[in-house]
Amino acid sequence: MDLVIRAVILGLVGSVLCLVIRKNSPEMGLVLALAVTLLMVGLGMELVSAIVDFLEALHDAAGLSPALLSPLLRTVGIAIITRLASDICKDAGQSAIASAVELAGTVAALYIALPLMQTVFQMIGGLL
Question: What is the reported pTM?
Answer without folding.
Answer: 0.76
